[in-house]
UniProtKB/TrEMBL annotation:
Catalytic function, reaction form: apo-[ACP] + CoA = holo-[ACP] + adenosine 3',5'-bisphosphate + H(+)
Keyword presence, Ribonucleoprotein: no
Protein name: Holo-[acyl-carrier-protein] synthase
GO cellular component annotations of the record: cytoplasm
Coiled coil segments of this chain: none
HAMAP family, per database record: AcpS
Gene: acpS
Similarity field: Belongs to the P-Pant transferase superfamily. AcpS family.
Main EC class the enzyme belongs to: transferase
Cofactors named for this entry: Mg(2+)
EC number from the UniProt entry: 2.7.8.7
Start and end residues of each 4'-phosphopantetheinyl transferase domain: 4-113
One BP term from GO: fatty acid biosynthetic process
Keywords: Cytoplasm, Fatty acid biosynthesis, Fatty acid metabolism, Lipid biosynthesis, Lipid metabolism, Magnesium, Metal-binding, Transferase
Length: 121
């Protein structure tokens, strides 16, 4: 049974400006595992896309959960790569739920959509 659906869109320039204005911004958004992936990226634009995608994914997850960011923090939610390279999303306190995620980028935006499903017993 579907618990919720969330979607978020973010401007890449907004993320780029946040990275440049606040050295702690990346640490506020990414978990340690995500930051390891982020630091492996050599291209600055790709880093902006990566961070924007994670930001949008976490906002979308919080919307699907019905809490919004606040009760869930950005660092309670983690987006990694599955075995085939597609993103997988998990969150503290939502281990019994199944989640489905899609992230996309354009020249100016990153968009993520999350479907959160209550696992059948």
């Amino acid at each position: 049974m579907i618990k919720g659906i969330g979607i978020d869109i973010i401007e890449l320039d907004r993320i780029k400006n946040s990275i440049e204005a606040n050295t702690r911004f990346v640490d506020r958004i990414l978990t340690k595992n995500e930051k390891d992936l982020f630091n492996q990226l050599e291209n600055h634009h790709r880093k902006v896309e990566f961070l924007a995608g994670r930001f949008a994914a976490k906002e979308a997850f919080a919307k699907a959960a019905g809490t919004g960011i606040g009760k869930l923090s950005f660092r309670h939610i983690e987006v990694l790569r599955g075995v085939n390279g597609a993103p997988i999303i998990t969150a503290l306190g939502y281990e019994t739920y199944r989640s489905f995620i899609s992230i996309t980028h354009s020249r100016d935006y990153a968009v993520a959509q999350v479907v959160l499903e209550v696992a059948e017993l």
